Amino acid sequence: MFRFDPYSPANDADPFDAYKTLRDEYPAFWCEEAGMWVYSRYDDIIAALNDWQTYSSAKGNLVDELPNRAGATLGTTDPPRHDRLRALIQKAMTKRALDVIVEPTRGMCKKHLDALDGRKSFDFVAEYSSKVTVDLLFDLFAMPESGRQTVRDNAVLMVQTDPVTRQKGPEHIGAYEWMAKYANELIAERKKAPGEDLLSNFITAEIDGESLADREIQMTVTTLIMAGVESLSGFLSMMAYNLAEQHDARRALVADPSLIPDAIEESLRFNTSAQRFRRCLTRDVENHGQIMKEGDFIMLVYGSGNRDERRFANPDVFDIARKPRGHLGFGGGVHACLGGALARVATKIAFEEFLGRYPEFERVGETTKWVPSSNFRSPMKLDLAAA
Amino acid sequence: MPKVTYIEHDGRRFEVDLPEGWSLMQGALLNGVTGIEGECGGSCGCATCHLYVDEAFVDRLPEIAEAEDEMLDCTVAQREANSRLGCQIKMTPDLDGLVVRLPEEQS
Ligand code: HEM
């Protein structure tokens, strides 16, 4: 019998064959391991994203939700509360508002490339993607200088799941609690002395004359740090992974860096780091002959919708000329990624600089160790060697 | 399925069958209409799915909410009385035959 186990290391390494079986044979699949339904076809995922009234985020959007988060963050509330919260941050995250980070980001990239000092081999994750990401997020949120590495380590740990127990383990919950405490201290400081930064604006904001609930502020700040740090460095690493494999694509980008945005979109389609999220049914739904009950969870497999041959021709080919409009790499609908514009600018700059220094590189070693996670997919470590 | 016609700035017309509940932004992206970008993915966060709605349909659309109103002030092309964001208009049977025109530029 076919099984789909989003906790297994084999799935972390390569979920795409299982996705195809899901799409072709079980478009509405009951996954015992996760205890929820699975949507894998592009059209079903879009239909769910368009209908937040039925497919609610208020019971959490992580496949394995963290305690206390449901109902208190952008990703875990429904409209209208969600829209009001999002409006408080949205404007700071548009492409135009982010123009100010372009030059600082370039400087951060150069600094970390200088530190590599022309070395022939290095771990892209530890020495580049996570360093650049943490610098950028600390700058954007005006976070204190100290503790960068600890914040990063905890952000990466809190999104993981245990492959054996198939849930979050004590170390993951511990990392989350550490982050929530860190967020609380940050919030207390900002309340005393608010600045012009995005977090200060959010912390001091009011909706209809009422300030936000403490739990809302704490969980949102915690999530912004987690989403920012883990998602961006995870995606930068996926992009490097792809370019290490796809020599023609990489050479095309080196010859013409204006193609980098196209390669970013194709990477978001081909193997986004944000593979799976969940929703909860607010009423009974029948789809593909299955009757799903109010209160049941549904996993939306963005990584599979992006490979759906019903939508994208030759989906398993990485093609930077594809321009995959409408891909699900950032989800979609009211909950589409808040950090999309930020991630796009940061990735563009990170690779303009990286490819300038390292036009030729490949992966070292046969196997890659993947982050164990029911939600996300990116390498723990990516050893590259310059040619 | 209800139909919508997109008219690109250069005059090209696209007649698209759009499932109920799908947005005008999605209909454009998935059917080769190039005059819409939809950069933010449909969260009313970027003003790159700006379109002009045929006068005959303007009154049949849902009202402009505050978030859309704010974003409509950020469009690159001139905002007009019939300006809307494609991601905020979901297809319904009542909108069958809708015609929208796309601006020259979105970003
Ligand atoms: C390339 C990197 C990134 C990827 C692939 C990514 C992916 C995603 C996806 C797929 C969702 C939808 C979740 C759902 O459907 O429930 C999402 C939501 C979100 N992301 Fe990202 N993300 C990235 C970077 C970032 C960054 C840098 C930030 C913050 C600084 C961020 C903040 C958020 C927030 C706050 C939400 C919730 C939005 C809402 O529900 O309204 N993301 N992201």
UniProtKB/TrEMBL annotation, chain A:
Where are the membrane-spanning stretches?
A: none
Q: Which UniProt keywords apply?
A: Heme, Iron, Metal-binding, Monooxygenase, Oxidoreductase
> Which cofactors does it use?
heme
Pfam families tied to this protein? p450
GO molecular function: any one? monooxygenase activity
- UniProt-listed SUPFAM superfamilies: Cytochrome P450
Q: Does the keyword Transport apply?
A: no
Entry-linked InterPro entries: Cyt_P450, Cyt_P450_B, Cyt_P450_CS, Cyt_P450_sf
Q: Which organism is it from?
A: Rhodobium orientis
Which lineage is the organism of this entry classified under, starting from the top rank?
A: Bacteria, Pseudomonadati, Pseudomonadota, Alphaproteobacteria, Hyphomicrobiales
Q: Which family does it belong to?
A: Belongs to the cytochrome P450 family.
Coiled-coil segments, which residues?
none
Presence of the UniProt keyword ATP-binding in the record: no
Name of the protein described by the UniProt record:
Cytochrome
- The residues forming the signal peptide are none
From TrEMBL, chain B:
Which Gene Ontology BP terms does the record give? P450-containing electron transport chain
Q: Which domain of life is it from?
A: Bacteria
Q: Which CDD domains match?
A: fer2
What the entry lists under InterPro entries is as follows: 2Fe-2S_ferredoxin-like_sf (IPR036010), 2Fe-2S_ferredoxin-type (IPR001041), Adrenodoxin-like (IPR001055), Beta-grasp_dom_sf (IPR012675)
Which residues does the UniProt record annotate as the domain 2Fe-2S ferredoxin-type? 2-106
Enumerate the cofactors the protein uses: [2Fe-2S] cluster
Q: Return the PROSITE patterns for the record.
A: 2FE2S_FER_2
Q: Is Secreted a UniProt keyword of this protein?
A: no
For this UniProt record, give its keywords in alphabetical order, as a comma-separated list: 2Fe-2S, Iron, Iron-sulfur, Metal-binding
- Keyword Phosphoprotein assigned to the entry: answer is no
Question: Which GO terms label this protein's molecular function in UniProt?
Answer: 2 iron, 2 sulfur cluster binding; electron transfer activity; metal ion binding
Q: Could you name the Gene Ontology cellular component terms for this entry? A: cytosol
Q: Which Pfam families match?
A: Fer2
Assigned protein family? Belongs to the adrenodoxin/putidaredoxin family.
UniProt cross-references to PANTHER family, sorted A to Z = FERREDOXIN-2, MITOCHONDRIAL, FERREDOXIN/ADRENODOXIN
Stated name of the protein: (2Fe-2S)-binding protein
What species is this protein from?
Answer: Rhodobium orientis
